[in-house]
Amino acid sequence: MRKHLPIAGALALALIAVPASASAQSSTDLDDALLDRELQELYDAADHSIVAEVRVGDDTWSESIGTREIDGGGGQVAEDDRVRIASLTKSMVAATLLQLQSEGEVDLDRPLSDYLPGLLPYEDEPTVRQVMQHTSGLNDYFTYLYASIVEGDLSDFYANYRTHYTPEELVAVGTQDPLLFEPGAGWSYSNTGYVALGLLVEELTGDDLDEVLEDRVFDPADLEDTYLPRDDTSGIRGANPVPYVTTGDAAAPYFDTTKLSNNQMWAAGGVMSTMGDVNEFYRALLDGTLLTAAELAEMRQFVEVEPGFGYGLGLVGMTLGCPDDPEEVFIGHTGGGLGHQTYSFHSADGERQATFTWNIDDRHGAADPAELNWALGSFLIAGLCGTDAGEMPDEAGLRSQAVPAIESLQDLMFLG
Question: Is the pTM of this model over 0.85?
Answer without folding.
Answer: yes
